[in-house]
Write a structure and sequence with these properties.
Elements lengths: L11 E3 L6 E3 L3 E6 L5 E3 L8 E6 L2 H9 L2 H6 L5 H25 L1
Antiparallel strand pairs: 1-2, 3-4, 3-5
Helix pairs in contact: 1-3
The chain binds zinc ion.
The site of zinc ion has 8 residues, from strand 5.
Amino acid sequence: MAVRKATTHEAWRSCIACRRQAPKPALVRIVCDAEHTVRIDPGGRVAGRGAYLCKCSECFANARRKRRLEQALRLSIADNVYERLGREFSDLCCLNMEEDRIDG
Ligand SMILES: [Zn+2]
């Protein structure tokens, strides 16, 4: 961890489902905020314990199935919360799929 200069503005995080590492903006942050509400944090600015997932519905499904999200956020997540998160997550994935296509 001697190289500090190269990582000034892009922190890398790993997806809690597949463990793949990616620059923070390429991942979706899910946060447990001060009111213990679990939600998607598209800007990555909400204070609280966060977990990162690839922008891929498969990773969301795996995180749910393997309870990785609950482990990462250290709380239990009800089905209705997962359903809400899943909807927000897929909205985000749809938006970003278009951007990804432009990039190649
Ligand atoms: Zn992943």
